[in-house]
User: Which sequence fits this backbone?
């Protein structure tokens, strides 16, 4: 009874998480108290770095300004999904073409028109400008959306993964 009351107030005040007062809690998890404080110091420095905070704030503002449903996207997942593309695509301004074309400025382009990339006739003749809707359909089923194209990628089945990677591209292809 007393023990659980103590535990409850301890949780409520979050005092147990404080390394200075909670050595009994910390000891079983960390080999030594010293290594614990060493790993905490750099994290504190990073979090309070004004440049890192400004960049994160800037990204959050740009994300919120996107049209729905992209404003709701999980950008961390979008970045993770985009790793599936990076074996074939670069994204930065002036980046090289790889197996696939550089994707910088994608949403200001007509399909099949990145300079210096040798597209399939199918993609060259697709005849539309890239929008989030076109990209969603393309990524859901690359082979079916533009038959005869040469992107050998199965696509992204999950609609949330597509939303997230499209939001990521909406922000990153303009940087
Ligand atoms: C195995 C290589 C490969 C992978 C992986 C891949 N692509 Fe591609 N992608 C290509 C190729 C090749 C083309 C050009 C196809 C053609 O000319 O028919 C292309 C074309 C495109 C285009 C059209 C670009 C334009 O200028 O019209 C977009 C958009 C695109 N890919 C996005 C993606 C995204 C997003 C991913 C990851 C989710 C991805 N691709 C994964 C190879 C790949």
Assistant:
């Amino acid at each position: 009874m007393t023990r659980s009351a103590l535990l409850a107030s301890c949780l409520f005040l979050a005092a147990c998480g404080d390394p200075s007062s909670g050595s009994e809690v910390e000891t079983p998890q960390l080999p030594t108290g010293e290594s614990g404080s060493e790993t905490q110091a750099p994290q504190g420095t990073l979090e309070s770095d004004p440049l890192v905070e400004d960049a994160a704030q800037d990204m959050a503002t740009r994300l919120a300004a996107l049209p729905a449903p992209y404003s709701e996207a999980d950008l961390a997942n979008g970045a993770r999904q985009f790793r599936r593309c990076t074996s074939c695509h670069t994204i930065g301004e002036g980046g090289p073409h790889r197996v696939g074309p550089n994707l910088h400025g994608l949403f200001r382009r007509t399909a099949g028109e990145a300079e210096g990339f040798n597209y399939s006739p199918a993609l060259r003749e697709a005849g539309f400008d890239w929008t989030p809707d076109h990209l969603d359909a393309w990524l859901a089923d690359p082979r079916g959306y533009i038959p005869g194209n040469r992107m050998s990628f199965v696509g992204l089945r999950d609609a949330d993964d597509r939303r997230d990677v499209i939001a990521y591209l909406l922000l990153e292809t303009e940087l």
User: Anything to note?
Assistant: Residues 84-85, 87-89, 99-101, 106, 109, 111-112, 114, 119-120, 122-123, 135, 139, 149-153, 156, 165 surround heme C (CB under 6 Å). The chain has two domains: 2-48, 51-172. The longest helix spans residues 33-47. The radius of gyration is 24 Å.
